[in-house]
């Protein structure tokens, strides 16, 4: 078997073990069966739309139920009604839903076509030709220019930057706007933009098969008989954008669905709401009830035919196909099955779709969710999940780009015991940001125009030459791995590995210490207008273990200096004993910074002795070139010189949150919505944001850190946390422990537990990978669900989805995932509801979401206003609709006992046709589209109202049984009051009125009055439209009554219209109106009693909130008194810094300098 045949067979079997490709050889790679670069996010195509959509729709039991009815109605022996009475409504329902789904999917097709038809420069026949994205194939070489998105996952070959460097923005992948650096291997970077050399390049690549790991890639490039290792730093992923790089060339490795972006997109699934699933169950109940009722009627018919009907065949002859009473009963069984089908009317689903569509438009039209700076409205991308928004209990949120803007601002600092950055008025009160006056940096021609600071005393200290202030900013301008770019004189652009470093260097720049340029050996700083060159002797780069970085420089005065910055918990241990008092004072300042949610770093320095440094330098060189245990040896050498430091101060950086994030999370917490942050960022950064957002609070009893690496350690950490939160949860007798002990094959619901205090949980990706194993997942779930907030950091996209699936599997609550990057798509699709943040961070999350908007704080309006209204409306609709149709249908059952169970209907056939379709459709739609129990302002002021949806209080199986019992009672009243009215009755002129048509008119008119009054009582928000729909529909019924029963119409079409003059001759009788009035009163008495007595004797939390709202409407509350932030009894570090290694290795190797120095094997490993 050839290599290409083997590779193609592996792909067909779904088991590609490795990817093989050769540059500029389409014939070879095509034979492997790799897909082209076309992407597809849509669900349907022209061929599979009809079968797939019908399959999804017939998952609703009611649709399947009506399909069965259609087949039954084609049998004339059992069908008292024509088949079109069911065929037409079912076709309408399926068509409306199909059209809606088709429109939604067409939008996805349009988005796909827009992306697939983007232009790209492709190397073909020795020249660059413009082609479409979708035509790119594995093995092609493409050219990308500055600010262009990356077409596919490509291996970087060469670029316009020195040594094959390329800068990319990964916002669409991870929501981070800071730039990343990629580097081509030296053997391909020499190809540069020489089309002849690039066309002749025939390197072969063997690498990982397609996978969803955004930060993992390993492979080998074979070229000219040599092999070179490939890593993640050589791969440009689809979704990235080229920045500050004039051009670059790349070899396509993964295309279309194989790209890591699309591998993280997950599979489109058909989402159904809890209400949908509940209605399916209720339809099954109704079906069983219908079977039982029909069976009882059939038995009754059999008995009647045996004892009465058999002997009166001369009056009631049997059909030829009826041989006995048993056969007659069997046919009557199916006849009643058809007559009573309106217990689940097909119009239910038409109405539900219209209601959901209308509520979706409210979201799209909401001006308060429109983000003017980006001209972006909120968008309901699906119309099937509206009421689910009113039941959310768990929110899973990304951090970067969702909670934060990923914009770091130098906010405050502490220098030698003095705090700078506080703005106070004359009486000492803090000045709001809008009233602060910006510091004027016009004296500094190289200052960044985007930098803002509000404390002029710091500028004054710099200008008067304060030693400690100048040394502090000198440290910030030297101790970093930022790479500067100055393509235009005076316009500096800093390429920083983390936005923190960029903010610190920019701050030093504005205060007069401008980092201007660097080489592998020097740093040039413009200090208050004077250019000074510092010799870089060593960079002790940052790592997650060290939590600090240092730089050793030789000053122009030939003085050796070490500058260090890092976490306060680390730097404090490295300070000279003389800094004790200053350290204590600085720590107090750090506590203040931490309380304000600022990210902090300590800054220190040390003057070095030349002889000591010379000795240390030899040790450093030996450790650096060591082949074994290099990292540990370097750490030991670093610790020898990073000690006896002199403290300079501390920085406080604001990781700018999205607008109103803090207020939103406070509001959601009041609504009993638990917020979990799932992020790929490092632990310190994630925890710092959790405190800033109020997910964690300083007043919490404890925040548990799960950091174990093995099963035993993690299990012990989780059990310890549970023991502190609720000791009895570890007992076997505790009900929540049953799922842990039983280990059932099918997931069981784990009940909620109430902890003894307020707690938080932090777990990292490595520990989470172990905790998600079967034996530990319930331990993790129970511990996490007792916490007020949960932070999961260093997570892969797959782990995010796994956490969401875990909660979905074992908890009853509705889950919502919100994110902005491609790494969030998996959890967005896994959750019951997926929300995408649309904006500058990319479009992948938005394209795969159910709802989208531009700012996180719109989430509270989406849930607490639109979600709660939608849930309330659909619940009122279902309660009313089931009651209305039980009342309407069960009258036939009572009538059966008076007509020999003969399948005769009570109502006129035209009333049966129009009842759901015309007479009662507008009132119920008006209720479901316009009703509000309270307006949006009160909904946001009292988030506690939201709890009703979380516990599904307004429509559940118990409420359904209430509707059934009320419907049975009302049908009983309607039938027997009407029977009593006409029994042995006479008209005012002495004529008998005991006829079927008059009886039918009384029942149906009483029914219309009863259902009208019921919906009027359910309506909480009266508008002109409400009055028009409710009372207008009742008036329209009477108009239609006189029209359909008019002499002219009945005489023209006697076979269709049978009730000749009944309305005219009956509605002028007093006893008929008294009967209607009595029936209406008797039917609404239970509803009125329940409405007033339940809040008095069985109140729920929502009832109490409504009482408060009514009181507030009469007596407005005074404005809240601002509360001063309190310090907790313990201090916590607010340290947060770059989550990756810096550019130290690149800088010291000289690869960022403009003067190229040839180095063999500089970025490849020969094997």
Folded structure, characterized:
Residues 22-87 form the P-type ATPase N-terminal domain. Its main location: membrane. With 1167 residues, this protein is an alpha+beta fold. A hairpin with a 2-residue loop joins strand 9 (219-223) and strand 10 (226-230). It has 41 helices and 33 strands. The model is unreliable at 424-429, 1121-1129 and 1154-1167 (pLDDT under 50). It has a nine-stranded mixed sheet with strand order 14-33-32-31-15-27-30-29-28, sandwiched between helices. The radius of gyration is 37 Å and the shape is elongated.
The gist of it:
With 1167 residues, the protein is an alpha+beta fold. It contains 41 helices and 33 strands. Residues 424-429, 1121-1129 and 1154-1167 have low confidence and may be disordered.
Number of helices, where a helix is a run of at least 4 consecutive DSSP H or I residues:
41
Sheet with the most strands, sense and barrel status:
9 strands, mixed
Task: Compute the average pLDDT.
Answer: 83
Radius of gyration: 37 Å
Q: Which spans of ≥5 residues are poorly predicted at pLDDT below 50?
A: 424-429, 1121-1129, 1154-1167
Strand order within the widest beta sheet: 14-33-32-31-15-27-30-29-28
Q: Bin the strand percentage.
A: 15-25%
Going by helix content, strand content and strand pairing, the class is alpha+beta
Query: Per the principal axes of the C-alpha atoms, what is the gross shape?
Result: elongated
Distance between the termini: 28 Å
Tally the beta strands. Answer: 33
Residue share in helices? 40-55%
